[in-house]
Amino acid sequence: MISRSQFDQVMVPNYAPGKIVPVKGLGCKVWDQQGEEYLDLSSGIAVNALGHANPILVDAITQQAQKLWHVSNILTNEPALELATKLCDLTFAEKVFFCNSGAESNEAALKLARRYAFDNFGEEKYEIISTTNSFHGRTLFTVNVGGQPSYTEGFGPKPEGISHVPYNNLQAMEEAISDKTCAIIVEPLQGEGGVTPADSDYLTGLRHLCDKHNALLIFDEVQTGVGRTGYFYAYQGFGVVPDILTSAKALGGGFPIGAMLTTTKVAQSFVVGTHGCTYGGNPLACAVSLAAVNEISKQELLESVIEKGRTFKDFLNKMNKKFGLFEEVRGLGLLIGAQLKGDFTNRAGEIMGKALEQNLMILVAGKNVLRFAPPLNITDEELQSAFDKLEKTFEAVCA
Question: Is it the case that residue 399 has pLDDT exceeding 90?
């Protein structure tokens, strides 16, 4: 039988997967090769927004698989057009570009920003400002735009024209921006960087700075998008509209798909031949994504995400009073981070391992933040079960 040890024999060692090998999932539950059941508060890193093997998504992919899988972008297809129309109806966007991942959607956004500036203001306007601790993908371009130096070490030389300033620091951004800036890219809530929400005034200030300097504002909503914060996209909760928005993860409910959303004015700079993606907008991905979007955009689901997020944070704060683990509990909707303190500092990975011993799957955001991103449709009973397992985890850590 295939086992975890085979990973070390045949896979490139850029991952360090846990000791179990999942073979089946249903809703919020996962089973390993031995038939052991686990409760999943990770959603495949905020991807399986409707849980595992959701019947609505299974039906969508089954029906589409019997019709049309792939045609390339030499031709368009009905699921892609239906999904793009739906995304435009739900957002500020007027145009959509499809790809396969968050990194690809950010790559497209950054290229579009530079091309738009080139077309409208000349070749000197190409600088991009990002924030420290940000994460925007693993391509050579996006990993350098991300603000975590450890991810870029050994992959030089770096692309030019990229700078970073502290997150949530409007003054630093104001000092960095100039008429050479073509775009500011920011996460409304930093996911990999520690589950840190932006201040509303900060995002409003970024919008004003971009308008003043003829720069584009890019919101990376790869992790925060598609219901995760209790809004279909997080920008809607802040009331600040970007020029470009990137999306992936939950967009396909578990099937790989990415999208870049923008306006007609900005999209005009991507004329035929300027950018492309072989699998982008393929019928299978778009059919599944449309089914996911139709479910997640329902108001009752979005409202429940906000309510369950409050319940989750209340529980963590209660645990903090009991165990004294956390410096801060923060987040939006069902993307929640708990920053460790004192003797527990930098022990996030250890605690994640202890949770797995309680048959509970959680995430980390760096070495010092526990991250929770359960399916958006997690039931109250499953949430209570997760709380019971987490309490036992914290008891084990403190023993």
Answer: no
